[in-house]
Each structure stands twice: as structure tokens, then as C-alpha cells.
Amino acid sequence: MMKKRVAVLISGRGSNMTALIEACKDPAYPAEIIAVLSNKPDAAGLDVARSHGIEAIAVPQKDYPSRAAHEEALNAELARIAPDVICLAGYMRLMSADFVGQWEGRMINIHPSLLPLFKGLDSHARALESGMRVHGCTVHFVTAEMDGGPIIAQGVVPVKADDTEETLSARVLKVEHKLYPLALKLVAEGKVAMVGGEARFQGPEGTETAFLLSPNIG
Fold first, then answer.
1. What DSSP string runs through 92-134?
2. Which CATH architecture best describes the domain 110-218?
3. Domain 1-103's class?
4. 14 a known binding residue?
5. Per the annotation, does 39 bind a ligand?
6. Per-residue pLDDT tens for 5-55?
7. Does 75 carry a binding-site annotation?
């Protein structure tokens, strides 16, 4: 089996990156992580990647005079690595439309809400303020619109009466660590692809596994 080559972009500890690394250890998993890149040279996830024998690359945004210059340097590293798929895993930097366009259909992201609800930051606090009874996370293809790309998979958790932002965040994070490997598997196997600005699923198997209900987590 030819595994899809995956690059992961992070800005911090990379807990979702670690979940993907663990999934890729299964010989039957259809992808392998070939490199981890960060815009923060002190990102803890870089050391985690190195500990697993994965190439870890810092492309510090502070070293470049503009967003365009930083993205050019990042893109040069990605071109060298030649990934089939790019996974954003807590990459806390907005990307230009030009950069996203170069990787259209090959870049995916995980966001801590049930998109299209609560795009952007502070999604857990906003879910609580809105009185939501369910919350969750979404893996989607990346487009120029922030958190607006076609949805690949979603995971749902209940919102409890005594939840705080911290407890809800922790419950969602557990689902994220299950959902992201599932979504990457669908993409790597060709069971879902971005076509005409939409997520197109190949056959009933992909459609059925694009939704993860997790009522018993935490």
C-alpha cells in the first residue's frame, strides 16, 4: 500500500499532531507523517515530532518582514517535502488566499466547534454563552474563508449544565483526537475529496463515517 505523505503544521504543543502520529503507527493506516512544521521555533510539538523520528522544521514568522515573505519560505519547505496532504493542527496563523490556493483540496484543518457555528477564536465560551446543548469539532478542507471550507467530518459531545469553558474544551479535545485521524484516513483513501468547492464522498462507507457521536466522553 502506498501511503499518502502528510505534513503537519502546528504552533504549540501539537496534541492533535500527536494523535495523528499515533494513528500512523498502524501499518494499515493509509498515511504517514513525513514532517512537522511550525511558525513558532519554541513550539513544544517540534520536540514531540523529533522524539518520534519525524523531521521537525521551524519557519519563524518573526524572521520575515511580511506575511507574503513568511509564506514563501513556508511554501519552499513544503515544496521540498512534497506532501500529498497538509494537516493544520493548532496552526495559529491566518493564511493568504494565494497560499491556500496552491494547496486547495490537499489541506485540511480541525476546528473546535460544529461548523458553521462559532468560527474563529473562543468557540467553547461562545457555545456556552449561546446556551448550546451540544458542541463538538469539525475537520474541513481549508479555503480562503476562515473555518469556511467544505466539511469532512464532525464529532459531537453534550454540553453539561455545570460546564465551564475548561471542562467543555477538555471534552471536545478528546473527540478531536479521534476525529482527526478518522478524517485524514478518509482523505488519504480517496473516500472524500474537494470537488467544485464541496466535499464529495465516494460510496456509503465514507458518508457513514463522516460523523462521530460521542455522548459518553468525559
1. -S---HHHHHHTTTTEEEEESSSTTSS-SS-HHHHHHHTT-SE
2. 3-Layer(aba) Sandwich (3.40)
3. alpha beta
4. yes
5. no
6. 999 999 999 999 999 999 999 999 999 999 999 999 999 999 999 999 999
7. no
Flag whether the pTM goes above 0.90: yes
> Model confidence at 217, in pLDDT bands (50, 70, 90)?
low
Q: In the predicted model, is pLDDT for residue 152 greater than 90?
A: yes
Active site residues: 111
- Residues of the chain within CATH 3.40.50.170 domain(s) are 1-103, 110-218
Q: What burial letters (b/e) apply to 161-190, b meaning 16+ CB within 10 Å?
A: eebeeeebbebbbbbbbbbbbbbbbbbbbe
Indicate whether 213 pLDDT > 90. no
Torsion of CA 57, 187, 119, 143, to 10 degrees: 80
